[in-house]
Amino acid sequence: MDGKTLGILNENEEPYSKAKDTINKEVKTNNKSFNDTYSLSDSLVMKEIDASLIEESYHKIFEENYDIYASNTKVLYTFTVEYEEVEIKKDTDITKNSFNLFISGIDTYGNINVNSRSDVNMVVTVNPKTHKISLVDIPRDYYVSVDGKNGLKDKLTHAGITGVDTSVKSVEKLLDIDINYYVKFNFTSLVKIVNKIGPIRVYSDESFVSGIYDPGVKKEYRYYKGWNTLNGEEALSFARERHAFEDGDRVRGKHQQQLIEAIFKKVISPSIIINYPSLLDALSETFITNLEDDNLKKMIKLQIDENADWQIEKFVLDGSNGYEYTYSYPKQKLYVMIPNEDSINTAKELIKNTYN
After folding, report:
1. Which pLDDT does position 1 carry in this prediction?
2. N or C, which terminus of the chain has less Cβ within 10 Å?
3. Are the CB atoms for 164 and 180 separated by under 8 Å?
4. How much is the pLDDT for 63?
C-alpha cells in the first residue's frame, strides 16, 4: 500500500480519527478525503482510489445495497481501535424511582466490545413502586434524526455504528424522554443468556419456519402457533426472523419483546434469582451496561424480599414503508419505515403513564 491512494472519510469522531492514525503508522499512503460513505465506495469501485478506510458495518451496508461492490472489492486488512464512549448515564436509585432503560442488540457474534448496527432498539420503563414495566420497541429501519449528524436522518439501526450513546441520544430525541441506563448485547449474548438460565417459553401467533441468514445460523428452526419452549439458538432465530411474515419488522419487534419478557420472568423466578451472584458472574462478559452493580444488586435483593408480581405492557412503534436517502448511504434511496406520529404519541403516553 505504500505510495497508493487511500480514500478516507472527512470525519473527526474519535473512533475514526484513531483508525486514521493507526493506518497512517502502518503504511505511507496518499490520502484522499470524501464527505460521505457512498462517494468513497463509488470511487473505490471505479478504481479512482486504490483502497478505502471504512468501518466494518458500512462495508456490510455497501455489500447489501451496492450491486457491484462485493464483486469488485476485497478486504486487505482489519484492525480494532479502542476508545472511551461518552458517559450518558442519568443515575437514580432504581429501587425507589422510576427509570428508563435502553436495550441495544447489535448484529454481531463474539466480542461485545464493538460498534455495529443495532437491530434491537427497545425502551424499557420500570416503576419499582407500582411494579409496572412497559416495553416500547422501535423497528430497526425507523427513519429518525441521528444524534450528532446535523439533523440528518437515517435508519435507527445505523446509529449503533457510532456507538450505543448515539442510539440512546437519537431515541431520547424521538420519544422526548431521558434514558437513565442502557444494556448492549449481541447474537452470542442472547444464546448464552438463554442457555444459562434454561429454556424459555414464548407464544407465537402463527406457525413459521425461520431462515438461515449468516454462518452463525446452522439450520432452520420451526415454530408453532401457541406456546414454544426455546433454547438459546432457537431464541436467537425467533428474534431475528422477519421474512416469514407480511408485517416483517413489526412481527420481529413483537417477538423481541416476548423474548425480553420471557427472560425477565425466568430470571426473577425464585429458583433462578436466589443464585444471582453466580448468574451475574457467568454472564458478566455477555453484555455491557452502565447500570452499576450495586444498584442492580439492590433491585435483585428487593425482588427476593418482596417476590413482586410485575405487570408488563408492550407496544411496537408503527410507520409506513418507504424509500429515502440516509446519512450512511446518501446517494441511493434505501428502504426505511416512515414514523407514524400517532404511534409515537401512543408510545410517549405509555412511557409517561408507566413512569408516573
Report:
1. 64
2. C
3. no
4. 83
Decide if 82 is inside a domain. no
Q: Does residue 110 sit in the same domain as residue 32? A: no
**What CATH number is associated with residue 137?**
3.40.630.190
Output the CA–CA distances (angstroms, integers) from residue 35 to 22, 81, 84, in the order listed. Answer: 20, 22, 25
The structure's pTM equals 0.89
Q: Kindly state whether residues 47 and 118 are assigned to the same domain.
A: no
Residue 188 in any domain: the answer is yes
**Enclosing domain of residue 316:** 99-355
Looking at the fold, whether 44 and 175 belong to one and the same domain comes out as no
Which residues lie closer than 8 Å to 243 by C-beta, 6 or more apart? Answer: 211
Which pLDDT score is estimated for 311? 96
pLDDT for res 42 = 87
Instruction: Count the domains in the chain.
Output: 2
Question: Are residues 201 and 260 both part of a single domain?
Answer: yes
Same domain, 150 and 264: yes
For each successive 10 residues of the chain (356 residues), what is the average pLDDT?
Answer: 83 80 84 86 90 86 82 87 79 96 94 91 97 97 92 93 93 97 95 94 94 82 96 95 88 95 95 90 90 92 93 96 91 92 98 97
Is 325 part of any domain? yes
- Count how many residues are written for the chain: 356
Look-up of cell digits 446509529: 159
Under 8 Å between Cβ of 135 and 148: no
Q: How far apart are CA 168 and CA 182, in angstroms?
A: 8
Q: Are residues 43 and 116 in the same domain?
A: no
Residue 35 CB coordination number (10 Å): 11
